[in-house]
Amino acid sequence: MKKIVFVEDDLGILEVARFIFEKAGYSVSLYGSAENLLAQLNHEPDIFILDKQLPDMDGLELCRRLKANPRTSAIPVLMLSANPQIKTLASNAGADAVMEKPFEIKELLMLVADLTARVKQPL
């Protein structure tokens, strides 16, 4: 079973994400902040899904940290944001993909399936 780590400060979105991804056959770990993720991450997921606007750290900075860490650098990062410049910002932060809010659930599931199907490079 593919594992997703989803970081979002809106609890409503987290619960919807859990429902959607679990129904699609994924295991989902939810975090309400970047610091919670960094302090509690004890496994390597198949993908990180990060909101840009987080309460304690910008999602782009979290992406940079994940990509700089040898343990997590090969794991795809999908950034979510309503910011119209997110594609450029996320690319500069090292994200593998971007979805602008609002998005279609079907498109999100297809993108996550594509990103998690990629073979991870050995550390």
CATH top level assignment: Alpha Beta
- Sketch the major β-sheet: 5 strands, parallel
Uncertain segments are none
Enter the CATH topology name. Rossmann fold
- Span of the ends, CA to CA: 21 Å
Specify the overall morphology. Answer: globular
- Helix proportion of residues, in percent? 40-55%
Enumerate how many helices there are, as a single number.
5
Query: How would you spell out the order of helices and strands?
Result: EHEHEHEHEH
Question: Which features would summarize this protein structure in a list?
Answer:
single chain, alpha/beta, 5-stranded parallel beta sheet, 5 strands, Response regulator transcription factor, CheY-like_superfamily
Describe this protein's structure.
With 123 residues, the chain is α/β, with parallel strands linked by helices. The chain has a single domain (3-117), classed as Rossmann fold (3-Layer(aba) Sandwich). Helices cover 41% and strands 20% of the residues. The chain has 5 helices and 5 strands. It has helices spanning 11-23, 34-40, 59-68, 86-93, 105-117, and strands spanning 3-7, 27-31, 47-51, 77-81, 97-100. A 5-stranded parallel sheet has the order 2-1-3-4-5, sandwiched between helices. Strand 3 (47-51), helix 3 and strand 4 (77-81) form a beta-alpha-beta unit. The longest helix has 13 residues, at 11-23. It is globular. The mean pLDDT is 92.
